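Incident review: delayed structure delivery

Summary: a single-chain prediction request sat in the queue longer than the usual turnaround. Root cause was a stuck worker, restarted by the on-call engineer. No data loss occurred. The affected request and its eventual output are reproduced below so the record is complete for anyone auditing the incident later.

Affected input:
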Amino acid sequence: GIIGAMEEEVNILKEHMKDTKVSTIASMVFCEGTLEGKPVVVVRSGIGKVNAAICTQILADKYQVNAVINTGVAGSLRKEIDIADIVLSTDALQHD
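Output delivered after worker restart:
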């Protein structure tokens, strides 16, 4: 499963998916299909760790995904980091 908090973070993935089936669960739209020939579920979770946790649990329960990838800008405030950039962290900080 691939989770993005905002629609613009998952739209590019959904545009490249084939054989899609859409389901709405807990006000989240789950887009099931294939991406580069691999089965995948892409969903916009909404912002925040609670939404991400709910979304992840639905992916595990309903779709039996083997892995969850969280994609997006992760609340980035730096203009030089764009959607589709890859960022590897050396530290993490919890902030709500």
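Verification: Residues 26 and 73 are 23 Å apart (CA to CA).
Action items: add queue-age alerting; document worker restart procedure.
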